[in-house]
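Late entry, evening session. Most of the bench is empty. Finally got around to the prediction I had been postponing all week. Sequence below, unchanged from the version circulated by S.P.
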Amino acid sequence: MMLRIKLTNVKHKLYTINRLKIILLLLLPLLLRLLFIPSIFVDLEVWNTRIGFHGLKSPVVRPHGENSGCFILIILMLSGLEIWCVDKHQLASVQKSFHGKFYSGSAYVVLNTVTQTNGPPQYNIHYWLGNGANKVDSALASDKALELDSALGSCAVQYREVQGQETEKFLSYFRPCIIPIEGVYSLQPGHVNGETYKVSLFTCKGDHVVSVKEVPFSRSSLNHNDVFILDTASKLFLFCGCNSSIQERAKALEVVQYISENKHSGKIDVATIEDGKFVGDPDVGEFWSLFGGYAPIPKDSPSDVQKQSDFSSVKLFWISLQGKLCQSESASFNKEMLETNKCYMLDCDTDIYIWMGRNTSLTERKTSISTAEDFIRNQGRSTKTRLTFLTEGLETTMFKSYFNTWSQKVEPRLYEEGRGKVAAIFKQQGYDVKELQEEEDCDIYINCRGKLKVWRLSDGKLLLVPVPEQTMLFSGDCYIVQYTYPADGRDENLLYVWLGRHSLMEDRVDAIACMNAIVDATKGDPVVAQVTEGREPLLFFSIFQALIIFKGVLSTQYKKFIAEKGVEDDTYDGKKTALFRVQGKNLESMQAIQVDQVSSSLNSSYCYILQTGTCIFTWIGSLSSTKDHELLDRMLELINPTWQPMSVREGSEPDTFWNALGGKTEYPREKEMKEQMEDPHLFLLVFTDEVYNFNQDDLTTEDAFILDCHREIYVWIGHHSNVKSKQQALSLGSKFLEADIWLERSSSEIPIYVVTEGQEPQIFTRFFEWDFSKANMHGNSFERKLAILKGNPPNLVVPVRNSWKTLSRDSTPDYPRSRSVDSTGRGSNFSSTTSVSGSNFKPSNDYLSSSLTPIGRKLFSASSSSHSSSGSPTAESSFSGNVNLVQFNGNEAGLSSLIYPYQRVKVDSKDPVTGIDVTKRETYLSDEEFQEKFSMTKQAFYELPKWRQNKLKITLHLF
């Protein structure tokens, strides 16, 4: 665990830090118990010999007591890998220089610790079994993995890894690959006889994480679907099957480079061989001569589609103390079936999960694991069967998806409580610890002194908002915000579409269409983002500096709707009673949000402005800070500088205050907890597989990706991907949120950014170790990596980053941006940039019908004009294209009039259909083939819960 400590006295900083280290080390057993590891045992004699944070090279493992039967683990919670190998019936620590080198005759235990941005560390434990490992060593590795989890307070997820069938998470630790070594690991390995060199043939599979397997050096090992590496003493050959993907070939080149550097010291020639091409190339002739001469590779026989497991085959077993399996009689499962004092096995065919209740003993857990391994052997299951071990409270998303109900019970934030106790301990030692609490993400990563321009949508037209009013938004309207800022000597452009909470559905669709038209009409390639009121990112607020959001609407279409329905118009006009909540990060990023003028809208964590017909009140919550009070004074001046408010503190309000709010009622009085920062996750746009331990090289130009940062997501589009427009990317991003693969996201209306390859802003690249020369290389993934491998200078594409092009007939002059005044009274001037100017820009009907694809229209569910449950009106939206919308028990399903065979619509198709809605691949199957694949009719399928539909589609490679 890394404790970040700020001291008020910095005169003897180094001396003080050393003293703190010593105190921390002395108190570590207590601190760990206070935080989140109650069951850890610490050997103080060994621990106290390791004073420095960086002096710990590896955890210390030694026996401790007859009853515990587990490790004494001394580990400072730092990120990274620790590896042990079974050697002579005990665990031996593997040096860092040998990480990634696994012997096929041995068994290993691997611990990966990830220090999160906020919250406790995450632990993943893997025990790896080589194909030649004996049963005793394998059993010992399994036991020690469980004991290691116990020593960490049962806070780890455990995985069983079998040589050649490793999980992608495990392989991602050892990029670019793992190539097992024949033999058995020893602390004193013998010398390799280098007189002869064994020719080896490897097959490489995987688009983002490579699984490398040695195959017999024979022509019969080659096929048209895979990529092969032939390793000889004088040359490395890369053979690319004609049906292999570009991504697979590119990843295989990384393996070629790895072999070259590790086995040949980088001094070996590399040749690439194209399957089926033999035109006198000397490398091709040399390659086939090693196989006894050229001969065509036989065509692959059409393989039957492997029968995938579905929910009817999933079984839940209770594991008794004697290791017997007792199957549940229920056909459907819910969380309440799992008792905390028992262990269970969930059999999902290719995946088997062992769930261990918090109140089970170490002996019970060992019994459950050995029972599962015996079950796999006795059932004759495939070697591809994966075993995952989960402790109650650490369930993975995939595991939870097999249960009909999984209540999201909010657990106490023990980690945060522990941090507070640590702070108290240090204060008792005389140190003023100011920073052991959750920090806000104050970095916004771009220059916020740029130029701002705002349009409001009204009756399908874009109206330019005058500069004095561009920081005032209405919750019933939709707006397009253009922000231009300097970066790396050129202008970068960022486009937001802001959707008011109560805006019409028709206005939302038109706003996105208008933004897409703006993007298409520019020479540059701006980043676009979709934002819903109430879920704005910090960056959005920062570029406005001081933003006021009023209730009501200015849109002509919405005004007509109000008149037709006879609904009261609550649009703010400066005269009605109004209540504003004041919030913000600082004086350059603050907001006043108009809320319902009732006392339940109050919150002790904020300050408020109450405007009545006779007077103005400022209300100061008891939990608000000095910073909040400064924001209150500044926002009051911005809303109306002539107001003379009456300041009241919480608890001392006069009766007139409560009367203006309709009477005093209960409201939140506890400190509002900020949403925990989550580390980002990278997914292919088909949402099926996560890319673990990702880096920039994983962003292959042939694909599109989702970078899920929990509070916001980024859709990254490669130049050669099938996603051809920003609007399509926004739609797919919305589908990703709708799928809710985490099964715990509080809202699907979080901000969606769309980023194009080669135009990545710092708000995106900050999640990677970014090399801009790679981002602008020419060619597909394979061509780029081949150029680097052969030492050729990369062919760079210079991105076009010209200023925005004017679309309207009339030019609009730049307006100076409103002054931002800080606490010292200083101000700074800003000006806007010329862009899509004029007040009458409207996309033509031809544009709307051609550019709004069915999936684009399905970004928002269509319904008749009515008020939704949240009170916001919706409007009918027409859908174009070959998709009909059918309702099955309230679930909307798109049934296509186009029919394609399963082999062409599945995600991993070798001959994919283009131009289809990739989020509804199943709709393109005929009724007969749908029945065959899903074992049910389409109507029965669409009557299932959404999560269950997605799960079935995943198993059939249709999602």
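Two things to note before I forget:
Residues 902-956 form a domain with the Villin Headpiece Domain; Chain A fold (CATH 1.10.950.10).
The longest helix spans residues 13-35.
Will write this up properly tomorrow.
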